[in-house]
Specification:
Layout (H helix, E strand, L loop, with lengths): L12 H15 L20 H13 L4 E5 L11 H5 L5 E6 L2 E7 L8 E4 L2 E2 L29 E5 L14 E5 L3 H4 L2 E11 L12 E11 L5 E20 L3 E5 L32 E3 L7 E5 L1 E25 L2 E24 L5 E6 L7 E15 L2 E20 L4 E34 L6 E6 L18 E29 L2 E19 L1 H4 L2 E3 L19 E3 L21 E3 L2 H14 L6 E2 L14 E22 L2 E22 L2 E6 L5 E5 L4 E23 L2 E12 L10 E5 L4 E4 L7 E15 L2 E23 L11 H12 L7 H11 L11 E2 L9 E24 L5 E12 L20 E10 L2 E10 L2 E8 L2 E5 L2 E11 L4 E8 L6 E4 L6 E6 L3 E9 L1
Parallel strand pairs: 4-7, 12-16, 34-38
Antiparallel strand pairs: 1-6, 2-3, 4-5, 6-7, 8-9, 8-48, 9-10, 10-14, 10-47, 11-13, 14-15, 15-18, 16-17, 17-19, 18-19, 19-20, 19-21, 21-22, 21-23, 22-27, 23-26, 24-25, 27-28, 28-31, 29-30, 29-37, 31-32, 32-35, 33-34, 35-36, 36-38, 38-39, 39-40, 40-41, 41-44, 42-43, 43-46, 44-45, 45-48, 46-47
Helix pairs in contact: 7-8
């Protein structure tokens, strides 16, 4: 079995300096003996006060509980809440656009970890710059400003009293309570500079952030009101290189290439007619061995994107305690997150039949290091323009009543109604220069180098000046997509506690909850392309004499400053072009309205450049959950050793209703060589499927203190995680007609279950320092893997097989052509039908003589089990009264399954599984505070099916952050922060390192601010 090996944990020089300083200080300090100890927890506090609070939570809890507390009211240790969570052992984060967004726990994917607010399930939607079926249960921390949060508790073992859904962990976010805080007020402001703005053209160099909190409690301390609010604007430029598809092929020896389905007309049973052989002048270097799997890229794309992210958060809390035994709390939580992106792309799409030179690397699954195509008739290079807007709003209204009925019995009633909604739109104008006679790509660097050779002498395609410029650019195809996600949760809980004695307490409770996710997607690329020049383009003169004035020259290579030295400057395509989408779209509307070329300008909805209003996904998933639990807490003494045991059992039943309503495809349209569309039914067809399941989840936590400063823990539990909304859908969607792929849902999926075992030992050797080591094991059953089945759907037929197609191939051979050239296939079929291939709008439709199209359909199934296991080590140490301290932790995690990169087809493996490490040095004394933090995450599998069954791995990443503050007075503090100080980048690859999926050139972000407390 061949698998990609992870990179070893390495400390960079700046990190080694931190470690060395900590070691020197440690060498001059003696370990002190701790005093009051009570529980286990992994803390992540930047400053001494917050770390002490976290340590108290850790020591006093029964079970494995980690905690983060605000250093001061409204001041968390990191500017981003996810960045704070990653410093807890066992937790790691996924970054989107360089910012922490989602949390994994002990190798469990973010969608299988539950995030609650004050113990209430929180709805999740996605706003990541993409428009499509992006619905997820994973909570996106980008929606939440850390300034409105009071703290976070992380439960890494299951408890009967805690809500389900966290297969790996439950993260409970705590808001501020006025009767606990009292009379306080703060206001803070920051200026933020993201260095990537220097790579763009629209972003502001400095953007504002402002936050504040007001808390009031009356003199009797029985009525209080608090409000926390935050506004943030952040500008950055996102520089990304990506490849849409890597397509696996199998070498057939010296000829290398085999294309399934392209049969030799003389030997139909022999499917090894090669599109590229040495006899056709193809140069192949380091060819893969016969039978060896290799990969070919579909394209290379550079994308430069200017982003503006705006957050608005508010939390209003009212508390009233009319008597000593009754407290009522009402919360209103609101958040809004808006992402605006202006994107420019430079790309080329490949045609394998035109390969003239290819060189392979020596990896287990070879990928090209050099890739070159040569064309007789010319091809295009694209300069697509995109505009994206996504707005997420979340609101929650909740009421909680705590009632001490008697000295022994207490009850808590909690109700909330919460909603999260995202509305996203993206518009794209496809713009091509159809003057390329050769394409070149060098994949041997971290960043692929793209180059082209042009010939613009054809007056119908270019301006004949020998330079790739605006006079060579034509409109092509436009798309506008729209998506909406809404998740609603209505939850009612009743919890109770009965105290039998000082050492025995029984907790119990019931819950009723309804979760509904409604997803709407109108994918303009699948259901309504706007023809604005067509795939082959038109004469640029069609757009008028002012056309060149719409364009601005742009060197796309300049948007990747970290890779300038490594790119082959002489080969790189610097002659990029940029434009504003709005004026371009208006120009296309004008040409369409003029009626000058209806074959190449059409399908504008109502004559405008806008979304056509067609949803190709309309899905609603509703889960009705009923649960009940009991939990016995018992304190005991084993000889002279005090201990605690908590034993619980939770029962939960879930009914699932899945409804989809979409316009089903009724025919397929072969538009050009490798471009396909779908003809959809006029009316949407709704259909529903249901599922149900129930679970019993036991839990047992035991801790024992052999001495005052040592605690031993054992926890056993069963936890569960639910399938994603997309996996539960009832319909089957066509992914890509060209590659014959589809995917479907399965509402009958069972939840994933994990049987968990935790063993740990903690030594609290001083009041504020400790060391711990722990083992965890998770046996996960019913894990949702994937299976690819071959099936026909909706009666759709395949024009690329059958008698019409075979006759066209035979006619091509007779004419001396290449029967595997897709353009020749398309044109010959048109000719055989009596149609003119020169007419761009002429398409081929399947008919009854064509066989049913068999789709490779990816469906989710409960067919996988796995074992996850690992160790966690943590150290927190303060060096006496010097003010210096350090925190170190390391998590090693493994599983008994992994992707074998040499195999094709569906494979099961754990997404997100990786080792992590943190090293933090801090100082807190006399009003001066600083923290230097290093976080490292090893390489991990981020997607089993990035494209079809092609895996994707995020490469090992580290980040160094810095924060400092100085108290000018007891009320006034100035702050400074630096994130990703060394400007580390994010890179993802496939079966080999050269098989790049994406590369983001990231940069540092700096904040300076002031804070005043009243």
């Amino acid at each position: 079995m061949s698998s990609l090996k992870s990179q070893q944990f390495k400390l960079k020089p700046i990190t080694m300096a931190v470690a060395s300083a900590a070691a020197i200080m440690a060498g001059s300090s003696n370990f002190a003996v701790a005093q009051d100890q009570v529980e286990e927890e992994v803390i992540v506090r930047g400053i001494r006060a917050s770390m002490a609070q976290s340590m108290d939570v850790k020591r006093n809890a029964v079970g494995v509980v980690d905690s983060i507390n605000a250093e001061d009211i409204g001041k968390m240790p990191d500017a981003n809440l996810a960045e704070s969570l990653q410093r807890i052992t066992g937790l790691s984060i996924t970054r989107i656009n360089g910012e922490g967004a989602r949390v994994s726990a002990r190798g469990i994917d973010p969608s299988l970890n539950m995030v609650t607010l004050n113990g209430r399930n929180m709805p999740a939607v996605t706003n990541d710059g993409n428009v499509g079926d992006t619905a997820s249960r994973a909570f996106d921390f980008a929606n939440l400003a850390s300034e409105v949060i009071g703290g976070v508790d992380v439960y890494k073992t299951g408890k009967a009293s805690i809500t389900t859904g966290g297969l790996g962990a439950v993260v409970n976010i705590k808001s501020i309570r006025p009767l606990e805080v009292g009379n306080k007020a703060t206001i803070a402001g920051k200026l933020v500079h993201d260095t990537t703005v220097d790579n763009g053209i629209d972003g502001q160099s400095a953007t504002p952030e402002i936050s504040g909190l007001y808390s009031f409690a009356n003199d009797d301390e029985n009525f209080g009101v608090s409000f926390a609010g935050a506004y943030q604007q952040r500008d950055n430029t996102r520089s990304n290189v990506f490849i849409n598809q890597w397509k696996p092929e199998t070498s057939v020896g010296t000829d290398v290439f085999s294309r399934p389905g392209l049969a030799d007309p003389d030997s139909p049973e022999d499917e090894v007619l090669n599109p590229m052989v040495p006899g056709l002048g193809v140069t192949i270097d380091n060819a893969p061995a016969e039978g060896q799997l290799f990969n070919l890229p579909s394209d290379v794309r550079y994308a430069l994107e200017d982003d503006t992210r705006t957050r608005l958060n508010g939390v209003l809390t009212v508390q009233f305690a009319p008597t000593d035994n009754l407290t009522a709390t009402a919360d209103i939580v609101y958040s809004e997150y808006e992402l605006e992106a202006d994107r420019s792309q430079q790309s080329t799409w490949y045609n394998y039949s035109a390969i003239s030179h290819i060189a392979f690397d020596n990896s287990a699954v070879p990928a090209p290091t050099i890739y070159q195509e040569t064309y007789d008739g010319g091809k295009d290079v694209s300069f697509a323009q995109q505009e994206y807007t996504g707005v997420t709003t979340s609101s929650s209204v909740g009421v909680n009543v705590d009632w001490a009925v008697s000295d022994a019995l207490s009850l808590a009633f909690d109700f909330h109604s919460s909603t999260a909604e995202n509305i996203s739109d993206v518009a794209e104008t496809g713009l091509n220069a159809n003057v390329v006679i050769a394409n070149y790509a060098d994949f041997s660097y971290d960043m692929p180098v793209l180059g082209v050779t042009i010939d613009d002498s054809d007056p119908a395609k270019g301006n004949n000046n020998g330079v790739l410029d605006a006079g060579d650019i034509s409109g092509a195809i436009g798309t506008i997509s729209h998506a909406e996600q809404t998740t609603d949760i209505v939850q009612l809980k009743i919890d109770g506690s009965f105290v039998f004695s000082d050492s025995t307490t029984l907790n119990f409770g019931v819950e009723s909850r309804e979760d509904t996710n409604h997803t709407l997607v109108g994918d303009g690329g699948a259901t309504g392309r706007i023809t604005m020049g067509n795939w082959g383009g038109v004469d640029p003169d069609t757009f008028g004499d002012d056309w060149e004035g719409y364009w601005t020259a742009r060197d796309f290579g300049a948007g990747f400053p970290d890779y300038k030295d490594s790119s082959r400057d002489d080969e790189f395509l610097h002659a990029g072009w940029d434009a504003d989408l709005g004026p371009i779209a208006a120009k296309m509307v004008d040409v369409n309205t003029s009626g000058v070329d209806t074959d190449n300008f059409n399908s504008f909805p109502d004559g405008e450049f806008k979304w056509n209003g067609i949803y190709n996904i309309n899905r609603e998933i509703t889960e009705e959950v009923t649960s009940a639990y009991v939990e016995l807490n018992q304190a005991f003494d084993l000889g002279d050793m005090p201990g605690n045991v908590v034993a619980g059992l939770r029962y939960e039943a879930t009914d699932v209703t899945s409804v989809s309503s979409v316009q089903l495809p009724v025919n397929l349209e072969w538009q050009s060589d490798n471009d396909w569309g779908q003809e959809l039914a006029d009316e949407a067809t709704p259909f529903s499927r249901t599922g149900d399941y129930s679970v019993l989840l036991p839990s047992l936590d035991i801790d024992l203190s052999p001495s005052d400063d040592v605690k031993i823990r054992m926890s056993y539990s069963k936890t569960m995680g639910r399938a994603s909304y997309g996996e539960l859908r009832s319909d089957v969607a066509i992914n890509d007609v060209y590659s014959k792929t589809a995917n479907g849902g399965n509402p009958d999926l069972e939840p994933m279950k994990s049987t968990n075992l935790d063993l740990s030992v903690e030594y609290y050797y001083s009041n504020d320092s400790y060391i711990s080591i722990g083992y965890f094991g998770k046996n996960v059953s019913n894990y949702i893997g994937s299976a690819v089945i071959s099936s026909d759907w909706y009666g759709l037929r395949d024009a690329r097989t059958g008698p019409r197609f075979e006759q066209a191939q035979a006619d091509i051979v007779a004419a001396g052509g290449n029967p595997q050239d897709e353009k020749q296939q398309h044109d010959q079929m048109l000719i055989n039908e009596g149609l003119d291939p020169a007419v761009e709008s002429t398409s081929i439709y399947a008919d009854s003589t064509d066989p049913l199209l068999m789709w490779d359909t990816n469906i989710p199934v409960n067919d996988e089990d796995t074992k996850i296991y690992g160790f966690e080590f943590a150290l927190m140490h303060w060096f006496g009264d010097s003010g210096f301290g350090t925190q170190l932790n390391y998590t090693a995690v493994n599983a008994d399954v992994a992707i074998d990169v040499t195999k094709t087809g569906g494979q099961f493996a754990m997404v997100g599984l990786s080792d992590t490490a943190n090293l933090v040095a801090f100082y807190d004394d006399n009003g001066v505070q600083f923290r230097l933090a290093y976080n490292w995450r090893d390489q991990f599998l981020d997607n089993r099916t990035q494209y079809n069954n092609e895996p994707s791995f995020t490469e090992a990443y580290y980040q160094v952050d810095f924060s400092a503050s100085y108290d000018i007075t007891d009320q006034l503090t100035v702050t400074a922060e630096g994130l990703n100080l060394t400007g580390e980048n994010s890179r993802r690859h496939g079966r080999s390192v050269n098989q790049l999926w994406s590369l983001e050139d990231l940069g540092a972000r700096y904040n300076v601010g002031v804070r005043y407390s009243f």
